[in-house]
Amino acid sequence: MWNLLVVDVAIGKAYTSVAFKASSDDVAKRVENLPMFVNAITTVTQGKFTPQKVEYLYY
Description:
By secondary structure, the chain is mainly alpha-helical. The relative contact order is 0.21. It is globular, with a radius of gyration of 11 Å. It is built from 3 helices and no strands.
């Protein structure tokens, strides 16, 4: 099951980076204090928007 989540997280981070034309870390910093915006964009993109910093690697 974790392998499926790794793929979903990777796709979401890539989607977010491309949509904002910035690294996922930069996007995470921009939206840090905008939880309602994050919820709205996540809903509109059907969960593809993933503004998260890389904390650790999944294996």
